[in-house]
Design a protein that fits this description.
Order of helices and strands: EEHHHEHHEHEEHEHEHHEHE
Mean pLDDT: 89
Structural class: alpha/beta
Number of domains: 2
Largest sheet: 6 strands, mixed
Low-confidence stretches: 1-17, 291-305
Shape: globular
Number of strands: 10
Distance between the termini: 16 Å
Length: 305
Amino acid sequence: MDRARVRFQIAPPQAAEDGTLAGLFPGQGSHTPEMRETVRRLRPELLQACIELVGEDPFARVAQSTRFAQPAIFCASVVALQERRRSGAGEPFAYAGHSLGELAALVAAGAIGLEDGLRLAVRRGELMAAAGESSGSGGMLALLGASEEQCEALAAGHGLVVANQNAPGQSVLAGPADRLREAAAAARGNGLRALMLDVAAAFHSPAMAAAVEPFREELARVDLSAPRRPVVSCATARPFFDVANELADAIVMPVRWMQTMDRLVEMGAREFVDYGPGRVLARLTARNVRREPAAGAPGSRARAA
């Protein structure tokens, strides 16, 4: 596809044809102060179910642990999906989710029921929090302005892994905290920006290995269906084929968001709706499809002009 001929921009919500619109669901880091109130107002029964499964209100502690962030962001995302559907907005022809967001994307595509999706989000958060605690001091480092080759070289040189490829010039390394600090110093010495992320573990790295099999077992208890619309995996940048195993394996695989966006464009996507709280994926869409940034309302879309 000649992407130079496709220009993308933010457009206000409006009806769209199925064949051009792709739906995106964010992961951790997308939480906003008002999302609990939105879920309470629109789906109070979902909020109550989430509190019961977690054992306390996760929204009150969403910034403290992935155990709380994952179910809270899942709830906010599926509520946004349901509200847009009620508004009569166009239904996407395909979906993708960034890490945790894959659960909401698979709910949107009919592969996972809403109640099962919530249980999986709660369990995934629990398992990843426990894996982070058991693996010791670990974290993540954002590299801004680095090429893919520079990221790979920094990771290899400091015993780290590339955990996220979010957009051109925006990647994340994961691993032990001391090695991340060394890599940050080396990156800055090469004129790059390096920012330690406020996370408690090395997500999407071997440090999460203890969570994989228990999550696979949890998925085996869920009634999974074939997605009614394609859902592109952010780990493989291909539509899901074996949902249970691919979701479990993705816990330790890098998030290949740049390649996922490329695949959606190749499939025909010309508009992208960010269903999550915050506008994290809307901003990444701007970087990935190289459109001119513009202000957008909640639920705004990147649209081909």
